[in-house]
Design goal:
Layout lengths: L10 E2 L4 E3 L4 H4 L13 E3 L11 E4 L10 E7 L6 E7 L5 E3 L6 E3 L14 E2 L1 H7 L15
Parallel strand pairs: 1-9
Antiparallel strand pairs: 2-3, 4-5, 5-6, 7-8
The structure holds zinc ion (2 copies).
Amino acid sequence: MAGDDTEMSDVLQCTAVTPAPPYLTHHLHLPCLSHLSHLSYLLCELGEHDQRTEHAARLGAAETPDAPAPWFFWTGAGPERVHRAEAVPWCPAVLRHLGTGVVRRCTFFDHHTSSHSWGVTDPLGDLIAEGLVSGEDPKGWAQP
Ligand SMILES: [Zn+2]
Ligand SMILES: [Zn+2]
């Protein structure tokens, strides 16, 4: 295969979801753990990828924008799941909007696979936001 082209073709976000291991909230000493308290499921944030590539979900922000951010990586599901959590450097890629000069930084980690964050469309994220992927109960929507 000849090298990747840099053309921005949108890819769908990987749909992998995994339960967050209970130790996670205790394991990571992060400045902004507060949002983790409701984090019972982790979503792979990468664009679709092959099965040998680890899924990856960012666990929070870094202490400074340039500091490594905590990520959860996993492969497999259920009892087969293999996972690790560690802080990894950001992907250095940036996207500059030619019209406005606004620069977007890739929100993934360095050496990630698939597209940069701006090339990934996120259909599942919207569903999560609406509470559609909240677990076992199909009709048990409750207003928070
Ligand atoms: Zn994935
Ligand atoms: Zn990137």
